[in-house]
Records
---
Amino acid sequence: MKVQLEKISPQEIEKRSFEIITEELGDFPLIPGTEDIVKRCIHTSADFDYAQNLVFSRDAVEHACNAIKNGACIVTDTNMGKAGINKKVFSRYGGEIFCFMADWDVEERAKALGVTRAVASMDKAAELKQPLIFAIGNAPTALGRLYELIREGRLKPELVIGVPVGFVNVVQAKELIMETEVPYIVARGRKGGSNIAACICNALLYMLE
Amino acid sequence: MKVQLEKISPQEIEKRSFEIITEELGDFPLIPGTEDIVKRCIHTSADFDYAQNLVFSRDAVEHACNAIKNGACIVTDTNMGKAGINKKVFSRYGGEIFCFMADWDVEERAKALGVTRAVASMDKAAELKQPLIFAIGNAPTALGRLYELIREGRLKPELVIGVPVGFVNVVQAKELIMETEVPYIVARGRKGGSNIAACICNALLYMLE
């Protein structure tokens, strides 16, 4: 049989995709209020594992939405994650998006201290005065450093999106961040990514619209 | 037991990650010459499905590496994909990276024709005179349009990285691109993403070093 593309308008593609995801999830139990985030992560990855591995602290979504409305800024650990956030929508609320990974002072600090640039970029972010949402999709060391900064009372984020991906310290860094008192959305286990971090930010933004 | 991070230097993290991936892949058969690409996709996603779903046309990797060495440009279908490509390494070979998705003329063309911006941005890319590698991680419509442009003889890419993710026309668009004569690397099925597209570009770049 010849392969053919389904005729569907650009506007319908996303709607239809979410219908398929909802259909295939069936009666899989999702936490009320988190469905849009879970489904968007599946939409971004085509990976239904996110129905199981996403963990939300109590009222994390509501808290994050309020923070965005009040002008919270987003700090990412990759420029890729920053690129993936819907700036058109986010800009309505007055916040800025920061990624310090490529900054010269971050590189110098990392070299001087023998730490990753992700760690040094979290230290730089801790000096910001605005309310902050951290979207960590790549570096477990960033998440580990956030844990320390929070424990030391030097940082109190509005939300930590803890979805670094990988094989070394990723699982542990996520567990550590869940031990803190700050609101979090974490993809438990190895999975995640800059795309997932950006997609969770976007899901929050679309919930506000 | 208290959660603890493994002490490991920044330089060692990637090396150790690839060791874990190699270990867990065991004797799973990978096509000789494609191992680095497959493992980097797993590294990027923590998803071992990529060991099974990545399909390479004959000599695709060799052909792509030569194209990059000869100054081929990369066209992506998201700015996120563009952001993820290692520019420091890529710039050594003289090529440029293009993403036309946010261009005003692409938006106008898409509106006028009732197509996605991804389709319109592929039309714009087809006018480039340089040798081209397409890294499609998001829009199946971009891949579908590439198929048409190739079939019509209006485009002859050096490589098509066909890894859009999703639920509508994604599987079909990938099968279509594999029917052409152009070199391809495709993630068969629903999975993929801008991160995977960028990571395949980077894997090719690191093979050249």
---
Amino acid sequence: MTVSDKSRQIRAAMRQEKAELVLKNASFVNVFTKELMKGDIAITDGVIVGICEDYEGVKELDMQGKVVCPGLIDGHIHLESAAVMPVEFARAVVPHGTTTVVTDPHEIANVMGTDGIRYMLEASEGLPLDVRFMLPSCVPATPFDEGGAALKAEDIEPFYQEDRVLGLAELMNYVGCVQQDEDVMKKVTDAVNHGKILDGHAPFLPGAELNAYVTAGVYSDHECSDLEDAKQKLAKGQYIMIREGTAAQNLKALLPLLMSKTADRCMFATDDKHPSDLLTKGHIDYIIREAVKGGVDPITAVCAGTCHAARYFNMKTKGAIAPGYDADLTIVDSLESFQVQTVIQHGQIVFDGQLCDIKTPVIDSELSREALDTFHLDRVSASDFLKEGSLPLIGMIPGEIVSKNCGYADGVDISKDILKIAVVERHHHTGHVGIGLITGYGLQAGAVATSIAHDSHNIIVIGTSEEEMAAAVNALIELKGGIVVVKDGELVAGLPLPVAGLMSTVSLEDTNRMLDEVKEQAYLLGVQHEIDPFMTLSFMSLPVIPSLRVLTQGVFDVDAWKYLC
Amino acid sequence: MTVSDKSRQIRAAMRQEKAELVLKNASFVNVFTKELMKGDIAITDGVIVGICEDYEGVKELDMQGKVVCPGLIDGHIHLESAAVMPVEFARAVVPHGTTTVVTDPHEIANVMGTDGIRYMLEASEGLPLDVRFMLPSCVPATPFDEGGAALKAEDIEPFYQEDRVLGLAELMNYVGCVQQDEDVMKKVTDAVNHGKILDGHAPFLPGAELNAYVTAGVYSDHECSDLEDAKQKLAKGQYIMIREGTAAQNLKALLPLLMSKTADRCMFATDDKHPSDLLTKGHIDYIIREAVKGGVDPITAVCAGTCHAARYFNMKTKGAIAPGYDADLTIVDSLESFQVQTVIQHGQIVFDGQLCDIKTPVIDSELSREALDTFHLDRVSASDFLKEGSLPLIGMIPGEIVSKNCGYADGVDISKDILKIAVVERHHHTGHVGIGLITGYGLQAGAVATSIAHDSHNIIVIGTSEEEMAAAVNALIELKGGIVVVKDGELVAGLPLPVAGLMSTVSLEDTNRMLDEVKEQAYLLGVQHEIDPFMTLSFMSLPVIPSLRVLTQGVFDVDAWKYLC
């Protein structure tokens, strides 16, 4: 901040010159007094310079009949999960009043390592959405993952120099933390020594382990699905990120937190937001609406969507409507119906019924080329999916991402809904293909494949025959990533996700249209309607979720922590 | 923080090894859930590593029948005002449960400049009291002051490198700030750019000016004596430091803040604490007791004395009893009577009925010599206090530090309680002596003088004759600072304050005994009992308080902002 910038803001505050923008006659949420206040809000240089006094502005907006809130903040998201580039994500969420998101580029880092982090930093620069970063702490998720990269403490440490990096992202490896694994401890102490924040991820971590985890400096958790678990964590000093996203919805279970003395230690997060969910429900505005419907005081709900996150992340000038704060504002019709009318980001009107022009950030060409070329494997053939003898049988459970261990079976039997599942390594030309059987998916013909495959993002394929599986994987390689449905060896629907195999290059609406189409085709081929054909599939290779998973080297028993074949 | 330190703490948290100290069966204040909780508190390496689980300790203390609170924090104090060295201050306040103070070395900086700041940093290093610093922002207080130093932005900026420096101290020059004075703006932006805190000092600053002041980044105020003034400031984002010290007591007026939704934006501060006040009342513990007596919920009162200050100052690991937090703990008999039993600082028992041994910090010898040699003036004689013609007459008001403009008088007239007052420049051998008359003080014989004279700390003297005044000033020069009472040219009582003319080198008790003696002698010589003979006097040269003040160059009309003679 320069003396001349700050002096100009003060001149506007003093009415020695006109403010750049004045919201006249505003009713606004004062997060300090926790009440609605009335009066002008004056803005200059992207900063709020005055409230509750009469101001004249070069531009003035009448706020009669509306309510001005601080801009909404998502405390934890993986932007890649929206399957679009950050610029498209911004286009989608700005009209919902989101002005800041804290992203963990964990997905792309599993594909591209630190280049993935750099890519996301560049791809989110200068948007009308403030994108802050937490550094992926657990790449790969386990030693059994064959991902695109492995990030050690020394790989991520230099990123703390970046202005938009707030800390270390969800420390999923809580076991490594409480057992004092050297690299985990290095990541922890680096974050602390840089004065940064450490996000947690430790569902139901009990007593002494939770003490140890928090002692490490992990002061948040977004994995609470249970009120008692959340209360334990609150009592030990963790902020609770109440998650209401696509893959997990915890608001209902945690609503009582927002009606108690601990409300000020709670914020909102989505973790994953998929295209259709963003388009149909909204973002943080949706969570606020749901909380209010659930009986939460609207001002408390707004605070959870704004200032509590700002305080936790030490974003000093965000989350409030007060002098010196960033002019990030979300203007709604009323606190109860919370329909976003106008959005101001850094003092600029970025949505007013109409979205402002958004310039696509320029990404370093070398990095961009690298992101568009992340499939390092040869075409496959049916024989790659053959394996002698019986194979472990994974049982999918409708509406869940956990799976059952269903013993062994001899091979595909469509009549019994026994299909073949495989994970094809795609990062380092290893030729590894892990093969198993799966039941509960329902496919009757063809094959489906996706390169969104947590967390290593290899290629997962399920098919009714080895030939169809090979066709699906080859179609996906052709697209350089995405989601495909194949029948009789031909592509019947495909969503290209050429950026690291995770993100499309088109708009959220178009991406969603294609995603609907691949889903529709998957259902037409018999996939059970209780299952999301690709989201559920995308977790089938994540070896931290019980019971059986398919990895690049075979079927893995998570409970026994070993390969079955 | 090193990996091995943090790993050791985690091992203790995990019960893989014994904690160094365990408080067994503790009832403790959980500032997050805002309730009393029960259970063990385990400490290793000065850090709380576990709560609410059974722990074994190398040392264990039974907490039955006691309540454990976070260590108490004073949000704003000038340590020099206790008239003793920081080590003696620590000896006095640790038994009252204070574990952290945030000091502004404004007094000594007016005498010794940046060397004064360095001196206080060294003099408070390694105490069983965490002394944090705010950098003096307004030295001198006005352009009319002739102090020992003038601190520009570039003089104080290097101190932001010091670990214990938290920000820029009370920005008393709010006029300079809202009028964008170049040096003030440089100080403001330096603090912001270093990610530091800016304390305010702006009683009753109205509307747009307050907006401008807060826009600068000033997010606290400790000058509120009026509830409405405090509410305005809270609404604009300032934290309120509820001040209850020796010179000003605002708790009663501001109690309602602690019984409203804004309680979490309030903390406690003393600003100035004089020896007798510390000895008879206590410190932050006293304010908590008074607040509770006034009807404040005891847990809210504890939060105001602990975590709210920690949060405002971004002292991330202070102010709570939770894993990873500093083991600064104040153990009391009950929340209601709040009598301190035991104090733990950085995991060490520093008071347990008995105070621990406290090592006196070693101060650089050059700096020490400089601090003991701050009287740069020659002996004075009666003729130095003579001035032709009539002189402005200052009216003292019992119980106030403001004064009245009583016109002019011709000279001393003891029968009418008209005495001579003078301020003798003592920093730079200028020979300046400002002379006026004063009424309302009551002295009937002799003279009194003090080198505690806000803010420049020249020598203020009041006398019944020029000879007595000269004797008093010479006695004070002899002592190298302090407070003296003289009768018939002879010293009748004296408190030596040889360190910068502000602090004694003996204990608080001894200092207080001598202070009582000089006061007693002053009262014996006729000083009105409604007036504190030296505290009131010490403000008579501070030209920001209406109406008349004596400066080194004459009587100053604060309302008219000019010299009268």
